[in-house]
Amino acid sequence: MRNQWLITFAFVVGAALTALVAARVQPEGYQASIFSDQGEGLFPLLTDVAAVQAIEVVDYNADQAVARPLKVELRKGRWLLSSHGDYPAEARDRLAQTAGALVGLNKDAVASDRWDDQAQYGVIDPLDQKNASLTGRGKRVTLLDARGAKLAEVILGNAAAGKPDFRYARLPGQKRIYLVKTDADPSARFEDWVEADLLKVDVSGITKLTVNSYVIDELSGTLANLRRRVMVPNGENWDAAARAASQTLAGLRVTGARAKPKMLADQLRTRQLTLSLETVMSLRARGFFVLPTGQLLANAGEAIVETKDGFIYTLRFGEVASSSLDGDGAATASAVAKTGDDRFLFVTVSSRNPDTEAKAKALDAKFADWYYIIAGKDFASIQKAAPAGAVAPLATPGGGAPTMPPPPEPQP
User: Fold this and answer.
1) Pairing between strand 206-217 and 66-75?
2) 109 in helix, strand or coil?
3) 8 Å CB contact between 169 and 157
4) 155 and 221: one domain?
5) Is residue 143's pLDDT more than 90?
6) What span, in angstroms and rounded, lies between the C-alpha atoms of 145 and 43?
């Protein structure tokens, strides 16, 4: 009987201890803990849009399994894409809109307090190399002041289903995931921050389109299989391919840029070119070559656009551009072109009309600083108008092709 009483007592004590433990870790207490900061401001230091002097946006390319960073900053009164060789940022309103959308942002609700839920809400840090997931990564956005101090930093994730203008967010290094009301959707795409319309040519203003194709023999410095097709609106060659190519050229958009060596850029502006080994290697890495005659050519041919205003745009199509191939995005010579591959572009401008000569020189000077990158689909559209007929002498009207002396011999 005594043993039975002891067993009963043990059960009573055990039940009491269980109740005590339950009281300490009851769901209500846990819920109160994770909601402790709900309603607070997300960025207490970000109170004034004007204080924002730089923005960094990092998103993730799942196909290439790489993070894509972009940084815009104000330097000496100019907005520059410092992540892209200080290319001029011409969409400065986008920065103000992004900063404005983050000012006063609140932690409207707590969605999760678990590390394992990051992929579900799309808030894995795109810079997190320890996490092997290719999906579920968000955009990391950082706003900086003039001294480089962080005013705000957040990982923006998925839009919330059934909740317009709400999306999930997480502060870097923290596990808590919030639901916030914001329409902020900053872009890490180069073309969203610049004047993407490269030529600014109206399709109705194109009076002639010439496409040259050829094969460059790098060893002998000669050309082979040289062809040229000249297309004039409403002429016999003005077929569907010519119309499509002219529309593409009129709306040609730049998707990236790489700075040319300063010596090369300066010489292009004066058209007094004395090539160094550095500039020759820079040209060749992007698919551009200099013949012994001094003529600049491209390994994927060229298109020449003439307008009714007298401008002559010469576009040379170089190598495939891929940020995964080397540090500055230049492709290797063995890269295989595909329809979806972006491609390097070298642009020069001249004029047949004395009235527009000064403007042509100004445009040429602007283009001299950069190797541009265009979308593979745009290049493919232009290539469809390439000649398939008999070989013809290569001609570049109006002096559109800068001539260069033979490249220097490499020093031992």
Assistant:
1) unpaired
2) strand
3) yes
4) no
5) yes
6) 13
- Domain-terminating residue out of 160, 192, 224: 192
pTM over 0.70: yes
Question: Above pLDDT 90, what percent of the chain?
Answer: 55
Give the DSSP H/E element, type plus range, for residue 73.
strand 66-75
Relative to beta strand 177-181, strand 222-231 is: unpaired
Q: Is residue 75 in a domain?
A: yes
**What pairing do the DSSP bridges indicate for beta strands 288-290 and 296-298?**
antiparallel
Which ranges constitute the DSSP H helices of 271-356?
277-285
Residue 16 lies in a domain: no
- pLDDT at residue 329, as a whole number: 37
On whether the CB atoms of residues 25 and 32 are closer than 8 A, the answer is no
Q: How far apart are CA 54 and CA 96, in angstroms?
A: 10
Q: Nearest Cα to 97, choosing from 157, 183, 179?
A: 183
Question: What is the distance between the alpha carbons of residues 216 and 151, in angstroms, rounded to a whole number?
Answer: 53
How far apart, in whole angstroms, are the C-alpha atoms of residue 221 and residue 326?
26
DSSP 397: G
Q: Is the pLDDT of residue 340 over 90?
A: no
Averaged pLDDT score across all residues of the chain: 82
Q: How many domains does the chain have?
A: 2
Q: Which amino acid is at 153?
A: E
Is the CB of residue 347 less than 8 Å from the CB of residue 313? yes
- For position 112, what pLDDT does the model report? 94
Residues whose CB is less than 8 angstroms from the CB of residue 397 and which lie 6 or more positions away in sequence, other chains included: 210, 304, 306, 312, 352
In what order do the strands lie in the sheet containing 370-374?
A: 222-231, 206-217, 302-307, 311-320, 343-351, 370-374, 254-259
Which of the residue ranges 41-50, 85-94, 190-199, 235-244 has the most confident prediction, judged by mean pLDDT?
235-244
112, 42 contact by CB (below 8 A) = no
Q: Is the pLDDT of residue 343 over 60?
A: yes
The 10 Å CB-count burial string (b at 16+, else e) for 301-339 is bbbbbbbebbbbbbbbbbbbbbbeeeeebbbeeeeebee
Ordered alpha helix ranges (H), 115-239: 118-121
| Phi, then psi, of 112 in degrees rounded to 5 | -165, 155
What residues pair up with 70 in beta bridges, in sequence order?
A: 57
In this structure, are 251 and 120 located in the same domain? no
